[in-house]
Design a protein that fits this description.
12-stranded antiparallel sheet; 44% strand; 22 strands; 263 residues; 5-stranded antiparallel sheet; 3 helices; globular; mainly beta
């Protein structure tokens, strides 16, 4: 048609902040744990593959002869008959206070070992170089290679009550690999120096940067502190925070509310 000019609209590039309306973050802003892809790697004395990602995750580990692996109890699915396993239990007042598991199993190669989290969630690998100390929730630890130092450390009373991680958490250091798990998918958030970021206190998995607890308002009303609502963990970079997409306490409450409901 005469005088009519068609303008072809440029395709939206969701990898560029400037192309997104309202200042929405680009697609690569959040780095997940590659939930749709297998995580494959090697370490001194073995190799691993994280498969069936997102909610039915399996960690398959191949160990060479004499190579040990420290594993949280109850997570083993299957293993080669050539593998050997020893259990260890450390009794102390910490166990009485945390109400959790302080035992661990040591699997030694050669052979194959299959591990899976107890909850419906994903798993990812942390590479420790000896430069950082990681804080890991007691339910998040799965396994680690030799050279990784795993200790229970006491949090301050405020963080113990309201951070969602309890009185004691794992302090992880050393050199090697550690596998952690989440309830739901895992999101990795890398923070630049002095960058701030708020995380709901029921969604923490692991972190290597400092944080403080902070109350936030919702709809103009600050929630009741005694219930833990309205509290977030305010992180400050540099560092990395691993976040889980589901809140175990909230999910348990949802299940209790809907238990026995039909129709």
């Amino acid at each position: 048609m005469a005088g009519h000019v068609e303008e072809q609209e440029a395709a939206l590039n969701d990898d560029v902040d400037e192309d997104l309306p309202g200042g929405a973050p680009a697609a690569g802003h959040f780095v997940g744990a590659q939930a749709t892809q297998d995580d494959v790697g090697t370490f001194n004395g073995g190799s691993y593959r994280i498969s069936h990602r997102d909610t039915n995750t399996i960690i398959t580990i191949q160990l060479a002869f004499g190579c040990p692996l420290t594993v949280k109890p109850t997570l083993m699915i299957a293993m080669s008959p050539t593998m050997t396993v020893k259990g260890a239990f450390k009794f102390s007042m910490k166990k009485l206070l945390i109400g959790g598991e302080m035992a661990h199993s040591t699997f030694t190669g050669p052979g194959e070992l299959l591990l899976a989290p107890n909850s419906l969630g994903d798993a990812t690998t942390l590479h420790l170089t000896g430069d950082d100390v990681w804080n890991v929730g007691r339910d998040a630890f799965v396994a680690c290679t030799q050279g990784v130092v795993k200790e229970y450390k006491r949090q301050g009373i405020g963080k113990a009550i309201f951070s969602g991680e309890g009185m004691f958490i794992y302090k992880i250091s050393g050199v090697g690999l550690m596998w952690i798990t989440s309830f739901g998918s895992i999101i990795r958030k890398d923070l630049q120096p002095e960058e701030k970021y708020l995380v709901d206190n029921g969604h923490l998995v692991a972190w290597n940067c400092k944080y403080i607890l902070e109350r936030v308002a919702s709809g103009g009303i600050i929630s009741n502190m005694s219930s833990g609502e309205g509290l977030v963990c305010k992180f400050t970079g540099p560092g990395t925070v691993f976040i889980q997409t589901r809140n175990p306490a909230a999910f348990a409450a949802w299940m209790a509310l809907h238990a026995g409901v039909t129709g």
